[in-house]
Design goal:
Layout lengths: L27 H7 L3 H9 L7 H4 L10 H8 L2 H9 L14 H7 L3 H9 L14 H7 L3 H24 L11 H20 L5 H29 L2
Helix pairs in contact: 1-4, 4-5, 4-6, 5-7, 6-7, 6-8, 7-9, 8-9, 9-10, 9-11, 10-11
Keywords: ANK repeat, Repeat
Organism: Octopus sinensis (East Asian common octopus)
Protein name: Ankyrin repeat domain-containing protein 45-like
């Protein structure tokens, strides 16, 4: 079981889960984050006796108001962050000022953290009470690597969203694409999806170029389909 005790015993990787001593200002999880005690955290999360206790702690803030993911973002605790997210920690949980873990990662230049957050579905468009997105925060503090990664993530998401929008043409009967047009759309989208999957090192510009190429290849078909839709709604 997780215990809340005094702060006079330092946590090390060799201490067993039952011997964790936690400062009154910290939760058992934030304590492990501060001490980078990955093994203890994993043992605690996977202990069957803690099954009912763990979920609320995944997002519980410490005495300074920081959530576990926010602390991981600030300190660059990538291994712990991945464990918490895999257990269901809220990737987009914002504090009272609207800062999400992605905002903190951007402020502290923790690009590896940003990558994990994005992998688990972080919304990089969320803004704080000052209308600042994670990219805005990265720009404010001059965190170039974070800016570049966010641009890359947006370019990738834009291509995938465009593919999805084009595929949706096939499930809207009002648009009435011909068999040849359907095949062209299907094959073009499959080609781009395969490119995304098989090109993990693609650059921001390559994602942009692939989207332009997709739109160019299907421009005539999509223009015709749009006209058909307009006719059917008149």
């Amino acid at each position: 079981m997780m215990k809340k005790i005094t702060e006079d015993v330092e946590v090390t990787e060799e201490v067993s889960t039952s011997e964790i001593y936690v400062s009154p200002d910290e939760t058992p999880i934030t304590h492990c984050i501060l001490h980078n005690s990955v093994k203890i955290l994993v043992d605690t999360l996977n202990d069957e006796e803690n099954e009912m206790l763990v979920p609320p702690l995944l997002n519980e803030r410490n005495a300074t108001g920081k959530s576990p993911l926010e602390l991981c973002a600030i300190l660059g605790r990538t291994d712990i962050m991945r464990e918490l997210l895999s257990k269901g920690a809220d990737v987009n949980l914002a504090n009272c000022e609207g800062y999400t873990p992605a905002h903190y990662a951007s402020a502290w230049g923790q690009v590896a953290v940003l990558k994990i957050l994005t992998e688990f579905g972080a919304d990089l468009t969320i803004t704080n009470i000052r209308s600042e997105s994670p990219k805005d925060i990265a720009q404010r503090y001059g965190k170039v690597e974070c800016i570049d990664f966010i641009d890359w993530a947006f370019a990738k998401e834009s291509l995938l969203a465009r593919i999805k929008a084009i595929q949706d043409v096939l499930i809207e009967p009002e648009k009435k694409p011909s068999r040849e047009e359907k095949n062209l759309i299907i094959n073009s989208c499959k080609e781009k999806l395969a490119w995304v999957e098989n090109t993990p090192t693609a650059t921001t510009q390559e994602f942009i170029s692939q989207q332009v190429a997709l739109d160019t290849a299907l421009s005539a078909v999509l223009s015709k389909v749009t006209k058909n839709l307009n006719k059917s709604t008149v």
